[in-house]
Write a structure and sequence with these properties.
By secondary structure, the chain is mostly beta strands. The protein is built from no helices and eleven strands. 0% of the residues lie in helices and 53% in strands.
């Protein structure tokens, strides 16, 4: 059996859908094998922005609706199942870039309107500003 092909995980912010631009974001994947097509894993996201992969899960930030304090951080398995909200809507304002520090199993992400860098466990526990 050939080894599995690498996969690229990425976000589509969704602003090209003028019927519903703030509910059209997607989490997507693309196998790097020849002829592969992009796959939608999660849809109807509100302006997804930052993404990282850790163990068997994808983590991403959701900026939310402009001018509302309703951002969140979400996660799913690599196949798009088991979608969870890690940091609930409104706990942060407009979360953006995200990175996971594997050694400590901590999520770090920026909050544009909140003007902070936040951190929490990969389960969302112990959410607090980094500085």
């Amino acid at each position: 059996m050939p080894p599995p092909q690498p996969t690229l995980f990425f976000l589509d912010v969704g602003l090209d859908n003028m019927k519903n631009p703030y509910r059209s974001g997607r989490v997507m994947s693309l196998s790097l094998s020849p002829g592969a097509s992009p796959q939608t894993l999660v849809e109807n996201e509100r302006l997804p922005d930052g993404i990282d992969v850790f163990d068997d899960r994808i983590y991403w930030t959701v900026m939310g609706t402009p001018k509302q304090n309703d951002g969140c951080v979400r996660s799913c398995k690599l196949d798009g199942t088991d979608v969870e909200t890690i940091v609930p809507n409104g706990a942060v304002h407009t979360p953006k870039q995200l990175v996971i520090e594997p050694g400590t199993r901590k999520l770090y992400f920026c909050d544009r309107e909140g003007m902070r860098i936040w951190r929490c466990g990969i389960d969302g526990e112990c959410l607090k500003p980094s500085f």
